[in-house]
Design a protein that fits this description.
- The protein has 114 residues and is an alpha+beta fold.
- The protein has one domain.
- The chain is built from four helices and four strands.
- The strands form two sheets. Strands 1-2 form a two-stranded antiparallel sheet.
- The two termini are 16 Å apart.
- The structure holds iron/sulfur cluster (2 copies).
- The site of one iron/sulfur cluster has 12 residues, from loops.
């Protein structure tokens, strides 16, 4: 079994799983909006050690795999059979739904993490 460090070393720091997501009809859809804790230059989480406290919507690796928040080429899921990655072809309609959801809930970081 991988240690926590070995697990973390698999991450390529692309930051794609740290974009806000929508769950639409059982399908996860990425938005272009990064979590406010993602450093967009380094693509690293600025609160990594305390990410689950700082962002209660930040998922664990295990939760993220079950929900399907990692892109298909992410090393954590690339070898998993039957894994369904998020849709990355968001539409304006998707973004409008996201804006609506944010109005109802001022927590703009919806999910992500590893
Ligand atoms: S967990 Fe995967 S998708 Fe997320 S930053 Fe690391 S490599 Fe990218
Ligand atoms: S989604 Fe989680 S890991 Fe990613 S930047 Fe936000 S708090 Fe950090």
């Amino acid at each position: 079994m991988d240690t926590e460090r070995e697990k973390e070393e698999k991450c390529r720091r692309c930051g794609r799983c740290c974009c806000a997501k929508l769950l639409l009809d059982g399908e996860v859809v990425y938005t272009p909006f990064p979590c406010k804790y993602l450093d967009e230059k380094t693509r690293l989480c600025t609160v990594y050690e305390n990410r689950h406290e700082m962002n209660p919507d930040c998922l664990t690796l295990e939760e993220g795999i079950v929900i399907g928040v990692f892109p298909a080429d992410c090393p954590y899921v690339a070898d998993l059979e039957d894994y369904k990655p998020p849709r990355e072809d968001w539409t304006q309609e998707d973004l409008d739904l996201y804006a609506e959801a944010c109005e109802k809930d001022d927590r703009t970081e919806k999910s992500g993490g590893k």
